[in-house]
Write a structure and sequence with these properties.
homodimer; 10 strands; four-stranded parallel β-sheet; alpha/beta; 12 helices; six-stranded parallel β-sheet
Chain lengths: 271, 271
């Protein structure tokens, strides 16, 4: 039993979609969320910079005495060294492996599609991880860098012409190839899953990492005997590295509700 | 006479369009360029964060012993405190005032349009500066945040359907209002000036800050007797805060030529 909070971090606010899933599945747990809004996005940066920033984000969460850490960022999940969790003395989980496991379980044909940020695709991590779970798999990947600013600028309605036009270009490899599952490998992408689905054949299953990560987090807490014994609802503390003035507006896109809690500004450089 | 280099900085690589203009107008000058590619873009961040980052960028250039500094970033130009240059003992120039002066000179009707990043529009600096130069002016502003990722992702051809569709939305206030000049208040926007022009009536003059800033820099050097006495061509040193691997590809969009010089990675946090 452990009443300390679960730490969740992301390059920005996309990881709040994971917080939303965690709250549903683990309602008695406290959560500390850190969004590196002062340096978002990570998906266009080099691997060295992504690792440097992620380590600072993790150091910040550790300073908040968390019992487990979730990297709720597709780009961090694909770029952290594979042995990274081994250096931590608390459970650690990213969004890569839970999504890959769900995709490998669900795919009949073994042809698995992945859309993600440029840095995630460049890392090759999806291909490596999918083939480690299912050696016969064929992986088709495409980077969709513009989806991130489109979502953050609110171009998310299912009939949005701009996002539809961009999606048409990005998703053409999945219309030609006969993948039967498609991993939405960035926390921004589930927000426009309707548009993505409209561009693809009906029989392609979309994998949203959020649901899978929340299940993985629950099993990690169980395994390490870290469930909270609280009977009341847990609360979430929000920290960001840029001025929180525009936080609520973008946060509600991902969280599905308004943020009524305080949002605290932290200086992540100094960590 | 002073053979030290001119320092130029930007949130990323957009400021290279200013370097291109400087090279034309001041061919014997050395230039030190710093692009904060590890934290780009600035245009979506808060004023506090923009000022903090800009001061670090300026500190880096000072460490390179420059004789003058140009803030080649629209967002920095509109968010630095108005008295900021007074703390510096070398000439300082941003892209706001030269563009505003050109617009005020060129406008017949006194109705002046401005497109810029969200942070620039929020700052109110264009309105204040335009009315300081021309008190009768009417200013119409609109933020165009998606133009930045569209340009950086290469959606720049004049017939690009996505950029045209986004531009149509952003530029509608300038079709209704009868502005006769439009300031392109972000270094990314001149790259798609063809698309912007196609959306507007022929009689609207587009102001590209690059040309104006280069002229301003030349007059500052003259005023302070800082011209280089070199007769050979000056060279440019490039510094960035993210891994330079993808530098050349994006840099050539703004610079108009390939970058053959070395590009050096610096740790801007430590400044």
């Amino acid at each position: 039993v452990d009443n300390r909070p679960i730490g969740v971090f992301d390059s920005g606010l996309g990881g709040l979609s994971i917080v939303s899933e965690l709250r549903k599945l683990l309602p008695h747990e406290d959560i500390v969320y850190f969004g590196d809004t002062g340096r978002v996005p990570y998906g266009t940066r080099s691997r060295e910079t992504i690792i440097k920033y992620a380590k600072q984000d993790i150091a910040f969460l550790r300073s908040k005495n968390v019992k487990a850490i979730i990297a709720a960022c597709g780009t961090v999940s694909t770029n952290l060294p594979e042995d990274y969790p081994s250096g931590l003395d608390i459970p650690f989980c990213d969004i890569l492996r839970p999504a890959v496991e769900a995709a490998c379980r669900s795919s009949v044909s073994g042809k698995i599609g992945v859309i993600a940020t440029t840095a995630s695709v460049k890392s090759g991590a999806y291909g490596r991880t999918i083939r480690a779970v299912r050696p016969d798999a064929v992986v088709v990947e495409n980077a969709c860098p513009l989806f991130v600013p489109l979502v953050e600028n609110g171009y998310i309605e299912r009939d949005n012409k701009v996002t539809k036009l961009v999606a048409q270009g990005y998703l053409s490899p999945f219309r030609k190839e006969t993948v039967d599952v498609l991993i939405l490998g960035c926390t921004h992408f589930p927000i426009i899953s309707g548009i993505i689905a409209d561009m693809l054949q009906d029989q392609i299953l979309l994998i949203d990492p959020g649901t899978e990560v929340a299940k993985k987090a629950r099993s990690l807490l169980q395994e390490h005997n870290l469930f909270s014994c609280r009977e009341s609802e847990g609360h979430t503390d929000f920290y960001v590295s840029d001025n929180p003035s525009s936080f609520s507006q973008i946060a509600s896109i991902f969280l599905g509700t308004e943020v009524t809690e305080d949002v605290v500004l932290v200086d992540v450089d100094s960590l």
